[in-house]
Every structure is written in C-alpha cells, then in structure tokens.
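Whether sequence alone determines local backbone shape is best considered at the level of individual chains. When preparing material for the folding task, we compiled for one chain both its residues and its backbone structure tokens. No coordinates are needed to read the tokens, only the vocabulary itself. For completeness, the protein is quoted in full, as a sequence line and a line of structure tokens:
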Amino acid sequence: MHKIAKIDKFERILIPTKMREALCLKESTAVYIEDRDDEIIIKPIHTKTPDAVKKISKMNLPVEDWETMEQEIESGAVNE
C-alpha cells in the first residue's frame, strides 16, 4: 500500500487511516524512525510487556527478580 502525504505547517505528516489501522497505530503509539539514504523508515514499537508479565507472574515460576524479567521481555518485544 502506498499514499502521498504532505507536511503541514507544524511540520507533521498525517499517516492515512487505512495504514494506521493495518499497523495497529493508535494515539501515543511509540514509533522507531530512521533516516536511510534518501528514505525515512517508520516502524511501530508494540510492547507486549504488561500482558506477558501478568501471564508469567500467574505461573508461579521461581523468578527472583520480576523487574529484571520485565526488562528482558521489553527488550525482546522492541527488537522483534
């Protein structure tokens, strides 16, 4: 899918609705932005931490440090 968008007077770019919906982008979704040669790459960062940590914590696993576990899960979710 491709669309043409313009930069507004506040230097913002509107991402078309169908694209936002396809990528599950909502208000306050974090995005990764990279400039590569003559391109701008924008990737959504969907963290799965809250649900994953809750589910894992209910498993009564022998985890000594839940904070470290959460950080490891977050780093894995971001790097997917």
User: Anything to note?
Assistant: The mean pLDDT is 81. Strands lie at 30-36, 39-45.
